[in-house]
Design brief:
40% helix, single chain, four-stranded mixed sheet, five-stranded parallel sheet, binds guanosine-5'-monophosphate, Rossmann fold
């Protein structure tokens, strides 16, 4: 990575509107990952941070109960419904949605602050949230992770056993709906082999960091 602005304006040519993301001079990269629950997003996300450690994860706020092993401020910020609704009113979210019956939202200030500092931020959010982010940050990189088949997804959800039966049915129904959004994303990764899926995500991030882009990236609230 280079930080020499003279050198960069040289390779950017006369049109200073152009730059290369990898320079981090203008702003970090916004990466958004979605896909039905049970598709393996969580594992892929965890592994990508070990392969590309200089990524920043955006921790979501939720009203969902905390599962065994989940840590406050690491996996989620767990709040009450009342607190969440206050945060909505106070414009604290870049996006929020009701996901499988629970509120989930991405804190706005953290995201804008990190991007402005040049950090590459990764969001793992549902399709409703991703579409809201896309409207505000169209230059973001939207990656959809899909299962190889419905059967495979159902098997994974059953094996996870974090959900009650009716919740499982709901997640399967939601999955069918979520899959319809895939065409609005920039990339599709079919997770039929975890190692290959992670390699694909790594390749996307590396390629996006090398991309030559037009810059007009100042998000205004
Ligand atoms: P889980 O309850 O299994 O942790 O997550 C269920 C779903 O909620 C996943 O599809 C995940 O991507 C989504 N999710 C997590 N955080 C957010 C968020 O901040 N906003 C939105 N819209 N969805 C989220």
């Amino acid at each position: 990575m280079t930080n020499d602005k003279d050198f960069l304006s040289f390779i950017s040519g006369r049109d200073t509107q152009y730059s290369i993301r990898d320079t981090r001079i203008n702003r970090g990269l916004l990466l958004v990952i979605s896909g039905p629950s049970g598709v393996g997003k969580g594992t892929i996300r965890e592994e990508i941070f070990t392969i590309i450690p200089d990524l920043t994860y955006s921790v979501s706020v939720t009203t969902r109960f905390s599962r065994k092993g989940e840590r406050e401020g690491v996996d989620y910020y767990f709040v009450s419904k009342d607190e969440f609704e206050k945060m909505i009113k106070a414009d604290k979210f870049v996006e929020w949605a009701l996901v499988h019956g629970d509120y989930k939202g991405t804190p706005l200030d953290f995201l804008v602050d990190k991007l402005q500092k040049g950090e590459d931020v990764l969001l793992e959010i549902d399709v409703q949230g991703a579409m809201q982010v896309k409207k505000k940050f169209p230059e973001g990189v939207f990656i959809f992770i899909a299962p190889p088949s419905w059967k495979d997804l159902e098997k994974r959800l059953r094996e996870r056993r974090t959900e009650a039966k009716e919740n499982l049915e709901k997640r399967l129904k939601d999955a069918r709906n979520e899959m319809k959004y895939a065409e609005n994303y920039n990339y599709l990764i079919i997770n039929d082999d975890k190692k290959v899926a992670i390699k694909k995500l790594e390749s996307i991030i590396i390629a996006e960091r090398c991309k030559i882009i037009k810059t007009n990236l100042n998000y205004k609230k």
